[in-house]
Amino acid sequence: MQKKRFLLNIVVSGALLLVSSIGLCSLPSLVAAETVTQNRSIIDEDNRTEVTETTTAPYASMTYIKTGKSWGSGAVIGKNTVLTAGHIADNIVDDFASENIYVAPGRSGAKYPYGKFKITAIHFPEEYAADPNSDSDLAVINIAPNAAGESIGDVVTPLALKVTNHAEIGTPITVTGYPQDKAHATMWTDTGKVVQHIGKRLFHDADTIGGQSGSPIYNNQHEIIAVHTNGNANNDYGNYGAIINDEHYQFIQAHMK
């Protein structure tokens, strides 16, 4: 039976400030003004469940990313490094030093079990900086140590990346992040499977809503194989993200701190 979809459309408007993958966000190379419509899908019944024990693995490594007026999701992948979606980083690249912009691993509503961390730099793949698109919708965020001198990767365990040049259909996956339709800043998760792999996009049937962009798509070994970026209203493949292939892995590794 063909899956039914309930679509929540979120329109993000404004100037997108882009930088090259080799430059710091304090030195932008390109500014593009545009409006982006992002579709998020609930597939059949909404099977997302709230994560209440956010200090347990792998949930402690999931990050709430405050972007000023809104938020996104991400994952700790290194001592001072967080992985998220490019269009989430677009929303903070021009004012990441603001007190209103921060990363909070394991956040659960009003609870910050590991505190807040400030951003020092943002990196985009060259392909995304030149032409924002879903194939390369990734960003690496470098994080400053907290007031106690602790790195984000010291207080939580970074998640591993798994190079995935070919994703087998049916592979079990999980998507965990911070949806906008639930109580503010609560963490939710859902399991699903890979339903298709086309080019640099991995399609899956886990339920997601706006706010979960940037969430890791990870396997049963808690290895990140893609970054969730979009829902899809135009075909039967469901939600999708940018896969961690050789190209994207090399980009991420080049900006790990």
CATH topology of the domain at 160-248: Thrombin, subunit H
Structural class: mainly beta
Tally of separate helices: 4
Q: Shape from CA axes?
A: globular
Query: How many strands, which pairing sense, and closed or not: the largest β-sheet?
Result: 6 strands, antiparallel, barrel
Poorly predicted ranges: 1-40
Strand content: 35-45%
Placed side by side, the strands forming the largest sheet appear as 11-12-13-16-15-14
Rounded average pLDDT: 85
**Number of strand segments:** 16
* Radius of gyration from the alpha-carbon trace, in angstroms: 16 Å
DSSP helix fraction:
under 10%
* SSE succession: EEEEEEHEEHEHEEEEEEEH
Gap between N and C termini: 46 Å
CATH class of the domain at 160-248: Mainly Beta
CATH superfamily of the domain at 160-248: Trypsin-like serine proteases
Q: Any guess at the CATH architecture of the domain at 160-248? A: Beta Barrel
SSE order and pairing:
Elements: E1 5-18, E2 30-43, E3 49-50, E4 62-67, E5 71-78, E6 81-84, H1 86-90, E7 101-105, E8 119-123, H2 126-130, E9 139-143, H3 152-155, E10 160-161, E11 172-177, E12 188-198, E13 201-204, E14 216-218, E15 223-230, E16 239-243, H4 246-254
Parallel strand pairs: 10-15
Antiparallel strand pairs: 1-2, 3-12, 4-5, 4-7, 5-6, 6-9, 8-9, 11-12, 11-14, 12-13, 13-16, 14-15, 15-16
Protein name: Serine protease
Keywords: Hydrolase, Protease, Serine protease, Signal, Virulence
Active site: 87, 137, 213
